[in-house]
Each structure stands twice: as C-alpha cells, then as structure tokens.
Specification:
The chain has helices at 56-69, 97-100, 146-162; strands spanning 3-4, 14-15, 18-19, 31-32, 42-45, 50-51, 73-75, 106-115, 118-127, 132-141, 171-176, 183-188, 195-196, 204-209, 215-220, 227-232, 237-242, 248-253, 260-264, 271-275, 282-285, 293-298, 304-309, 316-321, 328-329, 337-342, 348-355, 357-364, 370-372, 380-385, 391-396, 403-408, 414-416, 424-429. It is mostly beta strands and 435 residues long. It starts with a strand and ends in a 6-residue tail after the last strand.
C-alpha cells in the first residue's frame, strides 16, 4: 500500500542569519512505501553542506550514512549532481530542474556554520517533482558535536518523508574482544563513540539495558563464577547483585517493576527466577521442571515473558504469564531455537535457530507464523529490537570477525553498523536516549 504522507507543522526555522518561526502548511506529494521498508527505496539527493566549518566532511559522511543504512532511501551518487557546489539551501537559491537530471525524488540541503562557541546546522527538505519545500529546521550544539547534529538532521529528513523517526538517539551495549578478553562496551547506533564499561580482564556477556537507559545488567566471571552485575552508567559504578552457587545468567529487566528475571541453577536444573536488583533477593521462581529453562525476555507490558526450555526435548521458545503460569510453546520448526527477544509492539518474538549455521527468525505470537530474517551469510545471533520495532540488530560474522548488523523488521534491508576490528557480540539495543 502506498500513500502520500501528510507533513505535520513542526517547522521551527532557526537560521544562522536570524531566528524566526515558519509553519509548514504543505502536504508532501512524495510517495514512500512504508510497508515495504528496506525493499522499496526513495531516491534522494544530498549535496554537501554549505557553510564555514571544518567538520563539514565528518558531518556529511555521518548524515549520508544515516540515510543509507535506515532502508528508506537510496542516496544518489554525488558524481551525478550538476548543481554547482556551494549553491544556496533556501527556496529561490537553487533550481529544482538541476535535481531532476540525476533522478532525485527528494532533496535534502544542509548548512553548517560555526558561530563563536556554537555549531549550527540547517536542514531543508524538498519535493523535487512538486517543486516545493516540505520542511526546514535548525539545530545547534557545542563546537565538537558535528556527529550529533548530523544525526538530528538525518532524523528530520526521515521524519518529514516517512512520518516516523530514525533510531539515531540510541546505543548498543555489547561484549567486545578488543582487549583480548570479553569486556562490556557501549557504542552509538552507527558504530561510533565506543566506550568501555568493564575492565576486569574476565568474561563479561549478555548485557541488558533497563527502561531508563541508565543501567545495564550483565553476566560476568570476574569472581570465577557466572554472576549477575549491574552497571550504573551515570555513576560509573558496578555492583554484584546475584552470586549464588552455580549459574547466575541471562538478566532481563522487567519493563515496569525494575525487577530482574535471571537464570539460576543453585546446584540443580537452571530455571528462571525473579530477583530484586538492589539486594539480589529472590522474589519468585517463574519456571520449574526437569529440563533447562533460561533466557527470559519480557513482553513490552510485562504481563508475559518468553524463555528457552528443553522440556519437550531440544531447545524451543515458550511464553508464560508473568508469574510463570500457562507456559505455551511457540516454536516448532527446528530442534534448537534460542535467544528470544520480544518486539516492542508485543506481536513478534525474534529468536535464533540453528540449521547448520545460526540464523535470525521472528515468530508471530498470535498466529505462529515464522519469518526468516537471515540466510546464507555466516552465523547470525543475539537479536535485539530497536525501540520502535522497525529494526532488528544482531551479531554476524558474515564478513569475518563478528560485527553488529541491522536489518529492517522484514529482513529486506541488512547493513553492517560497526566497522574496523571485529569482536562485537551480544548486542542489546538501548531505549531512546536524550540527545
């Protein structure tokens, strides 16, 4: 289904030459196929920014990559542009005809200027065929924030042309092997600004963000046993919250109560329990039986959880009510299905199935319909949903060492997010964070 998207009046235009408000009254005539995200891409032209700042190259590269990796657009090769460099960004300062030549449907023009201690960007979005402005907005920040401004500009372009936001104000927590050990790190959505969380020279795995984006629970062997820890990122403090004999793994924050679902063995079969993340006290046992139960993932409202169980022979995905009652099997294809991740809208569960290699699938909770996301491209593991449910991130070794990859939720568009030296595993997608 295709339709022209109405453009809301979110145009507060703050130009480097002065500040004034300009409401948007137009309706976009650009047709964006939002239901074939990743497979039907709109051609967009993105000339280099006009301005006076030395960070222009970094800004432009970040903005261009943002638009390319999200799956809505094909950025037309700048070699095909005929408009002279440094042509103006505002209506009347350029010719729409110059953008019809390379086949642009949309046009995003930007300015980047440094004014004292402030870096400011303008982004103008145009409908080339309709020869009209769709939106204009400006953002400012400190002088070293060109990447952040580029992310905001990309988000504005996407919002104008699709009616939704991009994932640019999110991060990943992951386990990385860059130091020779498995330490925890966080990295921006596009792979930049990698920051190390743990420095204990041990194995640190399975990070899970809380709903506020301020804490990450994880499993660490830093004391010789797989124990549960919580890293408070704002305070720079790491606390051990579960150190019982045997397994303490797979921490998953409850979306509303801030409790943790964890897998504990206590010398017996591993089962899913509920613990208080402040004291580590067990507040309930959610699964029981003769098989292994592990890897809990909460539904978005916290009323149910998915988990992996071997109770039927072989690892399969089950769901149960929040108290553990009414467990029901939801995967039936393949004998080894693991790593469940419940989608933000509650309709699907992503998981990993092994059929020679590891691949990512999703299953509809209501119908059991299975969709294959990856195939024939190395091992793909540890799926994690974007906060809006439009994308899935996962770790893949298809290009060699593991990197964080992203796919649209239908699997049509897949792109490598992290670059350089590999070793990225267990990615967990943060909630939307403040810019």
């Amino acid at each position: 289904m295709k339709f022209p998207l109405p453009i809301a009046s979110f145009l507060s235009l703050l130009s480097p030459l002065g500040a004034h408000a300009q409401p948007a009254q137009e309706t976009a005539t650009i047709v964006v196929d939002v239901f074939r995200h990743g497979s039907a891409k709109t051609p967009i032209a993105l000339p280099e920014p006009v301005g006076n700042d030395a960070t222009e190259a970094e800004f432009y590269a970040t903005l261009k990559r943002d638009l390319e990796i999200c799956g809505w657009f094909t950025v037309i090769d700048p070699a095909a542009y005929i408009e002279p460099a440094e042509t103006g960004v505002r209506p009347g300062e350029f010719r729409f005809e110059d953008w019809e030549v390379p086949g642009a449907v949309g046009l995003a023009k930007t300015g980047l200027r440094r004014e004292g201690g402030t870096l400011r960007t303008e982004v103008w979005v145009y409908d080339v065929g309709g020869r009209k402005k769709l939106a204009a907005k400006a953002f400012s920040s400190g002088p070293e924030a060109a990447r952040t401004l580029a992310h905001k500009a990309a988000n504005e372009v996407i919002h104008v042309m699709t009616g939704t936001d991009g994932p640019f104000n999110t991060r990943f927590a992951f386990s990385g092997t860059f130091s020779g050990n498995k330490e925890l790190y966080v990295v921006d959505f596009d792979g930049g600004n990698r920051t190390r969380i743990t420095k204990n020279g041990s194995i640190n795995i399975q990070p899970d963000w809380d709903a506020t984006g301020s804490r990450v629970a994880f499993t660490s062997y830093m004391s010789g046993n797989p124990d549960i820890y919580v890293a408070d990122l704002g305070k720079g403090r790491i606390s051990r919250v579960s150190a019982r004999p045997g397994l303490n793994t797979g921490a998953a924050w409850h979306p509303t109560s801030a409790q943790l679902a964890v897998t504990l063995s206590n010398g017996g079969n591993p089962d899913v329990h509920l613990i208080d993340p402040r004291t580590g006290a067990v507040e309930g046992q959610l699964t029981s039986g003769s098989g292994i139960d592990t890897s809990a993932s909460w539904s978005p409202d916290g009323s149910r959880f998915a988990f992996v169980s071997e109770r039927s022979g072989g690892a399969q995905i089950y769901i149960a009510s929040a108290d553990g009652s009414g467990a029901k099997r939801v995967t039936f294809e393949g004998g080894h299905n693991t790593d469940p991740a419940w989608s933000p809208d509650g309709s699907r569960i992503a998981y990993v199935s092994r059929d020679g290699r590891f691949d990512v699938f999703t299953v509809e909770v209501a119908t059991g319909q299975v969709t294959r996301i990856t195939q024939g491209a190395g091992d793909n593991e540890d799926p994690s949903w974007s906060p809006d449910g439009r994308f899935l991130a996962f770790s893949s070794n298809r290009t060699g060492a593991p990197h964080i990859w992203m796919a649209t939720a239908n699997g049509a568009h897949q792109v490598q997010l992290t670059q350089g030296k590999g070793g990225y595993t267990n990615p967990d997608w943060s909630p939307a964070l403040p810019w």
